[in-house]
Amino acid sequence: MSRIPSVAPQDASFLVRMAYRAAARRLGAVPEPFAVTAHHSRLFFVSLTHELAVEKASTSLPASVRELAVYRVAWVLGCQWCVDFGTMLQRLDGLDVDRLREIGSYETSPRYSEDERAAIAYADAMTATPVEVTDAQVVDLERRFGRAGVVELSYQIGLENMRARVNSALGVAEQGFSSGESCRVPWER
Fold first, then answer.
1. 99-113 residues labelled b (16+ CB within 10 A) or e (exposed)
2. Hey, what CATH topology would domain 63-169 get?
3. Does domain 9-57 have CATH number 2.60.40?
4. Is the pLDDT of residue 40 over 70?
5. How far, in Å, CA of 95 to CA of 51, rounded?
């Protein structure tokens, strides 16, 4: 259970309930971070709008590169919810989720392409404290993905750092998205 309880539909405003319904239709359940954020209605709607806009705008990178870099951040930071949700996103994108078991040895695993390895290494460098990104990494990524691709990759990695840290701080745990089964909803324990 998260450290801050989710806002149940009966306690939510009309607009939040509508957003819950849309999320449940799209994802099969209301994401717990979403329901916890509902305690702050302005941030709830800003976050919702931002997430949808980022999803729509992120078209410069191959899905596998983007999703693996984001997944790696969640894995490194230990965000159970983000790993769970990220696995579902990769499955829905038709990507090989079995290889996620080898994310810890991505440098040597034959299941990752050179482009994916470069993006994962960049995710590690951006997630380190302090940040360890090098000029050579950015030059290499620009050669691989173009400037727009480097900006998109950096933005996605930075955004996942924020998500994973907030979810971990609030104690949001996995919800069952990765299994493809019905997820528990935050207010039904």
1. bbeebeebeeeeebe
2. AhpD-like (1.20.1290)
3. no
4. yes
5. 21
